[in-house]
Amino acid sequence: MRVEQIKTHLIRVLENHYAFEQFEFDDMTRGKVVKELDIDSIALLELFLVIEEAFELDMKLSDRLDMKLLMDSPIEKLFDVVSLEIFEIYKEELR
After folding, report:
1. DSSP reduced 3-state for 33
2. What's the number of domains the chain is made of?
3. What is the dihedral of CA 20, 23, 24, 26, to 10 degrees?
4. b/e sequence 47-65, b meaning 16+ C-beta within 10 Å
5. What is the dihedral of CA 25, 71, 48, 7, to 10 degrees?
6. How many angstroms separate the CA atoms of 1 and 88, rounded?
7. Using an 8 Å Cβ cutoff, are 64 and 85 in contact?
8. Measured between alpha carbons, how far is 87 from 7 in angstroms, rounded to an integer?
9. What's the CA gap between 72 and 23, in Å, rounded?
10. Domain span at 53
11. Could you tell me which residues are beta bridge partners of residue 74?
């Protein structure tokens, strides 16, 4: 699976989990930074659990990311970083 495919699947999973139509998902994410999504730490915890389950990861994704650095980043960058990290996890599993 390529990084672009992972990101597309990631966004689809999140849209389906949060029951958003595309325009609602765009409103939730467009122009926002990660800390706006993380109103409390439970929001990001749920997000990571949904992703870990959807991609059948055997490890905690949040342990592999520096969320302090990402908090002021656009949500789109979070999706990019998460997609790349999932790609790296898949590569490691193939070794």
Report:
1. strand
2. 1
3. 110
4. bbebbbebbebeeebbeeb
5. 60
6. 11
7. yes
8. 10
9. 23
10. 3-89
11. 33
For residue 41, pLDDT beyond 70: no
Whether 94 is covered by a domain: the verdict is no
Q: Which amino acid is at 59?
A: M
Q: Could you give the CA distance from residue 54 to residue 15 in angstroms, rounded to a whole number? A: 12
* DSSP at 2: -
- Residue with tokens 């389950």, as numbered in its chain: 53
Q: What is the pLDDT of residues 47-84, one digit of tens each?
A: 899 999 999 999 899 899 998 899 999 999 999 999 99
Predicted confidence (pLDDT) at residue 23 exceeds the cutoff of 80: no
Task: Give the length of the chain.
Answer: 95
User: Taking a C-beta distance cutoff of 8 angstroms, is the pair 38, 71 a contact?
Assistant: yes
- Can you read off the two tokens belonging to residue 54? 């959807």
